[in-house]
Structure formats: structure tokens, C-alpha cells
């Protein structure tokens, strides 16, 4: 049996019963274990206290998951957010340097939703803090009484580059559950997909060595039934094994 690679997953910092907890949604872990055939391991959001290089020395890949929280606007020069918005400064302080270090090493990186936004900000790009308030933009926050309704496919995207090569599809129907989105694409990132309203849906580092990709939607929700989602996790897992996409 081939060795299963180790993939790091930066955790979020959340409060439960008055205690600070490090956690990530279980769908990411299941998609990695079952869809990518890797061993996922949580990376605690410790910011500067984290030995990031030590983790990366031992990891075969990095998955940056989505989260209900938003990046702090001061990280990308945006206007201050109104009160009551969920933020996660501990995660911000952990993921941004971790992404930069992983990309520099050429480590396979798969970033999802907030992860795409973090990759863009980590490399110097900016975000729209509220896409739904922009003229001509759709409301991408996801609606429905149940999670299944919120995460159902919403619109088609046109895939290019690595995304198209991996999925073998030009048109992909994706879900949409996010409030922030890319404004200015970071120098050094290439746009791989755009939504009908112009929202950036996928990016990759220009000249990336292997699988380094960020998507705005949530392929972990349908990794076992949607061909494009299945292909993405399989390709990421293969890249962590050292197989080029």
C-alpha cells in the first residue's frame, strides 16, 4: 500500500462553552481522507508562536479551508468593518505567512473560499468586503433554511488553465456561500475562473510548480458525487504523493 501523505489544515479559533477551541468543519477532513486519500492534520492558529517552517518540513501538502469568519480589512487596506462581523485574528496571523512559505517551497496547496481570499491577501491583493452591495453583483452569501439548500449549486463558471486541465471541463456548476471576494488580484496570481457577474472564482500562482490552486466555491460539499469536485481532490491528493497534475 502506498504511503498516505500528510496534509496540514489550518484551524479556526472559535469559542465553545466559554472556552477558545481550535477546529475546522468535518467536511474538509472527510474530503481529504476519502477523496484525496491523504492524512489530514490540524495546524493550530497560534500566529507567531507557530513553528510554521517546522510543520511545512513534515507536510506533503496544505489545504486552506473556508470559514464563517472574514479577514480583517486592515490586512488589505480596506475600510473598517461594522461591528458584529465575525473575524478570526488568530487564523489570519497563522494562514497568511503559512501560505507564503508553502508557495515558496512549491508545496501542493489547495485553498477554498476564505482560503482563496487569504491567498490573494497574502500575496498583496485586496478584497471586496461585501460583494452583495456592489452594483451588478449577485448575492453570493448563500440562502436557504438548511445547509444543503445553502450549499447547492448556484451558477456556472468558465474554467481555464490548471482548473480546466484537472476537471476536464470548460463549464463547471458551483455553489456560492461567501460575503467577501477578490477586488484586486494579487500580482503573481492568474485568474482561472470567473462567475457570470464578474466575481473571481479561482486563481493560481503564475508559474506554479504542480498543484497550487484556490477556488471560491466549496468542492468539499460534493466531493463524492460531483465529477469536478472529485477530480480536484483526487488531483490534490496525487500531487501530495508527488504526481504532477
UniProtKB/TrEMBL annotation:
<dbReference type="GO" id="GO:0006598">
    <property type="term" value="P:polyamine catabolic process"/>
</dbReference>
<protein>
    <recommendedName>
        <fullName>gamma-glutamyl-gamma-aminobutyrate hydrolase</fullName>
        <ecNumber>3.5.1.94</ecNumber>
    </recommendedName>
</protein>
<dbReference type="InterPro" id="IPR044668">
    <property type="entry name" value="PuuD-like"/>
</dbReference>
<dbReference type="InterPro" id="IPR029062">
    <property type="entry name" value="Class_I_gatase-like"/>
</dbReference>
<comment type="function">
    <text>Involved in the breakdown of putrescine via hydrolysis of the gamma-glutamyl linkage of gamma-glutamyl-gamma-aminobutyrate.</text>
</comment>
<keyword id="KW-0378">Hydrolase</keyword>
<dbReference type="InterPro" id="IPR011697">
    <property type="entry name" value="Peptidase_C26"/>
</dbReference>
<dbReference type="GO" id="GO:0005829">
    <property type="term" value="C:cytosol"/>
</dbReference>
<dbReference type="Pfam" id="PF07722">
    <property type="entry name" value="Peptidase_C26"/>
</dbReference>
<comment type="pathway">
    <text>Amine and polyamine degradation; putrescine degradation; 4-aminobutanoate from putrescine: step 4/4.</text>
</comment>
<dbReference type="GO" id="GO:0033969">
    <property type="term" value="F:gamma-glutamyl-gamma-aminobutyrate hydrolase activity"/>
</dbReference>
<comment type="similarity">
    <text>Belongs to the peptidase C26 family.</text>
</comment>
Amino acid at each position: 500500500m502506498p504511503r498516505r501523505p500528510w496534509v496540514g489544515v489550518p484551524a479556526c479559533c472559535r469559542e465553545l462553552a466559554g472556552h477558545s477551541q481550535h477546529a475546522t468543519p468535518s467536511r474538509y477532513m472527510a474530503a481529504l481522507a476519502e477523496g484525496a486519500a491523504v492524512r489530514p492534520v490540524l495546524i493550530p492558529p497560534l500566529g507567531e508562536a507557530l513553528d510554521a517552517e517546522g510543520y511545512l518540513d513534515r507536510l506533503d501538502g496544505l489545504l486552506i479551508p473556508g470559514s464563517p469568519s472574514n479577514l480583517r480589512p486592515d490586512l488589505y487596506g480596506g475600510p473598517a468593518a461594522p461591528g458584529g462581523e465575525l473575524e478570526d485574528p488568530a487564523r489570519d496571523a497563522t494562514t497568511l505567512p503559512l501560505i507564503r512559505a508553502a508557495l515558496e517551497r512549491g508545496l501542493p496547496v489547495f485553498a477554498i473560499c476564505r482560503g482563496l481570499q487569504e491567498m490573494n491577501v497574502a500575496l498583496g491583493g485586496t478584497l471586496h468586503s461585501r460583494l452583495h452591495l456592489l452594483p451588478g453583483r449577485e448575492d453570493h452569501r448563500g440562502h436557504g433554511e438548511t445547509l444543503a439548500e445553502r450549499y447547492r449549486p448556484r451558477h456556472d463558471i468558465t474554467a481555464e488553465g490548471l482548473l480546466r486541465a484537472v476537471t476536464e471541463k470548460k463549464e463547471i456548476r458551483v455553489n456560492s456561500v461567501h460575503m467577501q471576494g477578490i477586488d484586486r488580484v494579487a500580482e503573481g496570481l492568474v485568474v482561472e475562473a470567473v462567475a457570470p457577474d464578474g466575481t473571481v472564482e479561482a486563481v493560481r500562482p503564475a508559474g506554479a510548480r504542480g498543484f497550487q490552486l484556490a477556488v471560491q466555491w466549496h468542492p468539499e460539499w460534493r466531493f463524492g458525487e460531483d465529477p469536478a469536485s472529485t477530480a480536484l481532490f483526487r488531483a490534490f491528493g496525487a500531487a501530495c504523493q508527488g504526481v504532477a497534475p
